[in-house]
Specification:
By secondary structure, the protein is of the alpha+beta class. It has a single domain, classed as Phosphorylase Kinase, domain 1. A hairpin with a 2-residue loop joins strand 1 and strand 2. It is globular and about 40 Å long. This is Aminoglycoside phosphotransferase.
Length: 114
């Protein structure tokens, strides 16, 4: 597996979105980088990321910007396009009907197709 090359996203400051024991998530412009927990099994992570990238899930799951790579400290990192999150302070503002429709579309994808 390649090490993560220096990447640049045009514009925007670097913002820490989450820093927990299981992940560190930062945003730079329209790119989000997630450093997964130390010891994350990279092969299993690659399978999950591959499902999100699979054309059968297009329009249902947010596709990654490539597969998992390794940081110099050995942690796996994945890159994703930024999407506007729902405010934790306003869960009622979530688009629940649209989320239900996406869930139905996800369940319609045959697992054998992935």
């Amino acid at each position: 597996m390649r090490r993560v090359a220096p990447w640049r996203a045009p514009g925007g400051e670097v913002v820490m979105l989450a820093d927990r024991a299981d992940a560190t998530v930062i945003r730079h412009g329209q790119v989000v980088a997630k450093a997964h927990a130390p010891g994350t099994e990279v092969g299993e992570l690659a399978v999950r990321v591959g499902v999100a990238a699979d054309p059968a899930c297009a329009g249902v799951l947010l596709p990654p910007l490539g597969g998992p790579e390794l940081l110099p400290d050995g942690r796996a990192v994945t890159l994703w396009p930024y999407g506007e999150p729902v405010s934790p302070a306003e869960p009622g503002a979530a688009p629940w009907a649209e989320a239900g429709a996406l869930l139905a579309r996800l369940h319609a994808v045959p697992p054998a197709a992935l």
